[in-house]
Structure formats: structure tokens, C-alpha cells
Amino acid sequence: MKKNKLRVIQISGIRGLLSAAFIVVCLAAGFIGFPALVLNKLWNHIADITGAIPYINMFQGLILWAILAVSYLIINKKQKYLVAFEPQTSKREIKDIINEIKSQTAELKHETPPLETQDIKIQPAAQKNSEQKEEEKSKEVV
To answer: Would 1 be classed as within a structural domain?
Structure first.
């Protein structure tokens, strides 16, 4: 099995939140907004020259950019994206994992003896408080 390495980014305070928001906005503008604006202007320039196609607004430029990006991802031969509705692990691997879990739980059962009800002492809250006060007084005296 693969071990995924997770990276944790710790954000603390207002300054960290503002920095994180700034980074997200800049990434969105650079990879979503700017290409959509360029496609919008390019499309409208072609519409001016030909007169055969209608003008589009910024939202339609964004949709055009999304269509082009998704089309590129689908057509790209170097990277393949797998969409599967079945688990990628085989049934044999799943059975092996389940057997390993069962053996580990069996080992744990043998290592730790089960608690019996005789071992558990139930004390009322008032009695606990008085015992704690007595322990504190004895510590103060020493």
C-alpha cells in the first residue's frame, strides 16, 4: 500500500488568514480569471473582424476557458485520468488486509486481560471530592 505524505500548512492569526486569502485570490486570478479575460477579448476581436459570431461577456469567456481546459485534459496523451467506480484494490488484497486486522485484534486480546466488573470501583461524586481534598491536604502538609 502507498503511504501518502500529507503536508500541513499552519495558519495563525489575522495576518496568516489575509496572506492565505491573498494567495488563493492570486492563483484564481492567474489560472482562471486572466485566461478567461484573454479568451473573451480574443473572441470579441474575432467577432469584430468577421461579424458572423456574437459577442460574449466575461462569464461566457470563463465557460469557454473551462471547455478548452477540460478538452485539453481529456485529449492529452501524456497524462491519463482514471475514473473508476470500483475499488482499485483487488478482492484478494482486501481479504489479506481484513485477515491482518483480525490477527492484530486477536493478538491484542491475548495481551491485555479483559476488565471484570469486580475490578471497577464506582464512587459517588461527593466521596470522590472529599477524597481529593484529603489527598491535597496531605500533600500540603508534606
So the answer is: no
